[in-house]
Design brief:
By secondary structure, the protein is an alpha/beta fold. It contains 21 helices and 19 strands.
C-alpha cells in the first residue's frame, strides 16, 4: 500500500478514507506529522511511519495526543506544513493546547485529523461527537463523506489554514475512515530535502497568550471566523443538488449524505439536498436560501443535533413556519445505517416502503449465542488474571481497569473489573477510592497507557500517600491499536524503562515479574496488597504477535 500511495498524478486507485487523507497531505506538501495511535485513525500514523523517511517527511508517534499537538504547534510556529492525527478521545487530551493554538494561529499551515467512533466499535469510554469542540474552540471544521473527499478536503484544509493563518480540523467517523472507494490522484510536489527544516522567528505578540494580549487575540479570532464564514459560503464543498422545486428538502453532512443518497434511490424520490461539508463556520446564507421556500426539512446527521439546532435558529428569521424534523426521526445514539435513514425519509415524506425495502428494516429475532471478545491464545495477560484469582479473594478486592487489551478483564471468564473510565484513570481513580474507603484495591494499566497518562496519577498517589497495588501490563507494544511503538518498547533504540520511572517517583515496593512465573507473581501480589505504601508490579512478557519480531531485532 505504501508504494500505491506514491503513484503518479492521474491514477485511479482504491483507498481507505485514512489512506486518502495521507495522499491528500502528501499532495499538499506536508513536512511534519505527529500522532498517538487510536482506532479509527491508526492507519494514518502507521502508514506515515513506513513512508516518511522515503519521502522526506518528519514523522513521530508521540507519547500522547496533547504532546503530539504541541509538537505540531512547534513545527507550525517554525513554518512547517503540519498534520496531527488522533481519535476522538485524543482531542479531549489536546484541549489545553488546542484552544490557545486557535488564538495564536499558525505560521506553517496546520491540519488536525480527528476520527469519531459512533456506536463505540473501538471506543469503550463514551460515544463522543467532537463537532461540539468546533464551537467551543472556534476551530474551522470540515466533514468529508468518502475517500475522494478525504483527499480533497485535506488539501483544502491546508489552503484554508495558509490563507487565514489558523489550524483547521478534519472530522471523520469510522465509516469514513475505513470506507474504501476509487480516488483520483493529484500531484505530489517534489521533495527538495530529506530533513525538513523550519525557522522560529521571535514574535511575542504572535505566540504568547498573556493578558491583555490574549483578549485581543480572541477578538481577532472572531473577526477571522467571519472571514472564513464568507469563504465557506462560496466553497464547493457545501452544495445543493436534487429537485430544487420541491417544497420538501433534506440537510445533511459527512457519511449521512451517502445514506441519504442511497435512501432516496431506494424510495425513488427526487428531493433537494443541502450537503454541508464545511461544518464550522457553517454557510448561513446558503442554508437560509435553501430553506426559505420549503414547507418542511429533514436534518440527517449522526449523534447530537448540531445542524438541527443551528437550522432552527436560522429558520426563525427566513421561514418561521418551516417544519423541521431531525432527532424525532433520526436516533441520537449509535451510528446511522442505510435502513435507519430509509425508514426516516419514508416517514418524513409519507412514502410507503416497498416490500423489498421493508425487509431491510425488519429486526429479525434470531437465536444467536452470545460470544464475548477474548484475549488472544498465548496472550501474557491470561497469566496475570489467572494469578490474581489465585492470589486474592476477588469478592474482597476492588479491581480498576484502563484502556487497552486488558479491558477484557471485565468480561467472562475473568470478571475482575469494577470501574473503567479513560486513559490513565485507573490509577487516579484508585487513589480516590483508597482515600475514601481504605478497601483493598488492585488496578491494571498498560505500558503505553502508563506513558500516555499514568505517570502524573502515580505521582499524585505517592504524594498524597495512598496504597493501591498497581499492575503495569508490560506487553512491550501498543497492542490494541496495531502494535505501534511507544517510549518504553524494545523496538525503540532509546527506550525508557518503566521501572526507572516508577523508582524515580519514590516507589519502594517495586518488582518486575514475568507472569508466566506464577509462583513468584502470586506471592508478590499477596505481599504487596498488604503494604501501607503504593506498590507496583511490572508484569513483563511480550505480546505473542511482536515477540518474534523483537527477538530478531
Amino acid at each position: 500500500m505504501e508504494e500505491i500511495l506514491l503513484n503518479k498524478q492521474g491514477k485511479k486507485i482504491i483507498l481507505l478514507g485514512n489512506e486518502a487523507i495521507i495522499r491528500g497531505a502528501l499532495e499538499a506538501g506536508v513536512n511534519f506529522v505527529s500522532t498517538y495511535p487510536g482506532t479509527p485513525a491508526s492507519e494514518i500514523g502507521d502508514t506515515f511511519f513506513k513512508i516518511a523517511e522515503k519521502i522526506g517527511v518528519y514523522f513521530e508517534y508521540s507519547t500522547n495526543e496533547k504532546v503530539a499537538l504541541e509538537a505540531g504547534i512547534g513545527a507550525s510556529f517554525s513554518g512547517l506544513k503540519t498534520l496531527v492525527a488522533m481519535k476522538d478521545f485524543g482531542l479531549n487530551v489536546c484541549l489545553d493546547a488546542l484552544g490557545p493554538f486557535v488564538y495564536t494561529g499558525t505560521k506553517g499551515p496546520t491540519v488536525i485529523i480527528v476520527a469519531d467512533d459512533p456506536s463505540c466499535h473501538s471506543s469503550a469510554q463514551w460515544e463522543e461527537g467532537t463537532r461540539a469542540i468546533s464551537y467551543l474552540t472556534h476551530i474551522p471544521t470540515l466533514e468529508p463523506a468518502d475517500p475522494q473527499e478525504c483527499k480533497e478536503f485535506v488539501k483544502l484544509a491546508f489552503q484554508i489554514s495558509e490563507k487565514f493563518k489558523i489550524p483547521v480540523m478534519i472530522r471523520t467517523t469510522t465509516r469514513v475512515s475505513h470506507q474504501r472507494a476509487l480516488v483520483i490522484l493529484g500531484k505530489i510536489p517534489s521533495s527538495k530535502s530529506k530533513t525538513p527544516k523550519g525557522k522560529f522567528i521571535k514574535n511575542p505578540t504572535k505566540f504568547v497568550t498573556l493578558p491583555p494580549r490574549v483578549l485581543e487575540m480572541k477578538k481577532e479570532l472572531f473577526e477571522k471566523i467571519e472571514r472564513i464564514r464568507e469563504f465557506s459560503e462560496k466553497t464547493k464543498i457545501n452544495k445543493v443538488e436534487g429537485n430544487q422545486k420541491s417544497k420538501t428538502g433534506i440537510i445533511t453532512s459527512a457519511i449521512s449524505y451517502l445514506y441519504v443518497k442511497e435512501a432516496l434511490k431506494e424510495l425513488n424520490l427526487n428531493l433537494p439536498i443541502l450537503k454541508i461539508g464545511f461544518f464550522y463556520p457553517s454557510p448561513g446564507k446558503k442554508t437560509k436560501a435553501f430553506i426559505k421556500n420549503l414547507k418542511k426539512v429533514l436534518i440527517v446527521e449522526e449523534l447530537e443535533a448540531s445542524l438541527e439546532e443551528w437550522v432552527k435558529g436560522l429558520a426563525k428569521d427566513v421561514n418561521p413556519k418551516l417544519q423541521i424534523f431531525g432527532k424525532d426521526l433520526i436516533p441520537a445514539v449509535g451510528e446511522l445505517k442505510p435502513e435507519i435513514v430509509i425508514s426516516a425519509i419514508s416517514k418524513f415524506t409519507n412514502c410507503k416502503l416497498k416490500i423489498e425495502n421493508s425487509l431491510k428494516i425488519v429486526n429479525l429475532k434470531l437465536k444467536i449465542h452470545k460470544r464475548f471478545p477474548q484475549l488472544c491464545p498465548g496472550c501474557p495477560y491470561w497469566f496475570v488474571f489467572n494469578g490474581i484469582k489465585k492470589a486474592v479473594n476477588i469478592e474482597e478486592v476492588i479491581f480498576g481497569g484502563d484502556i487497552g487489551c486488558y479491558m477484557l478483564a471485565g468480561l467472562p471468564p475473568h470478571n475482575i473489573q469494577d470501574y473503567l473510565s479513560c486513559m490513565g484513570s485507573s490509577v487516579g481513580i484508585a487513589h480516590g477510592i483508597k482515600k475514601a474507603t481504605g478497601q483493598k484495591l488492585i488496578t491494571f494499566i498498560g505500558d503505553s497507557t502508563f506513558f500516555h497518562a499514568g505517570i502524573p496519577a502515580l505521582i499524585n498517589t505517592i504524594f498524597n500517600k495512598s496504597n493501591p497495588l498497581i499492575i503495569v501490563m508490560n506487553n512491550q507494544t501498543t497492542a490494541m491499536t496495531g502494535h505501534q511503538p511507544y517510549p518504553g518498547a524494545p523496538a525503540v533504540p532509546n527506550g525508557i524503562k518503566i521501572e526507572n520511572i516508577v523508582s524515580a517517583c519514590g516507589v519502594k515496593n517495586l518488582k518486575v515479574i514475568d507472569p508466566i512465573n506464577q509462583k513468584e507473581f502470586i506471592s508478590t501480589v499477596k505481599e504487596f496488597l498488604n503494604k501501607k505504601e503504593v506498590s507496583v508490579i511490572i508484569a513483563r512478557r511480550p505480546c505473542i504477535f511482536v515477540k518474534e519480531k523483537y527477538e530478531k531485532k
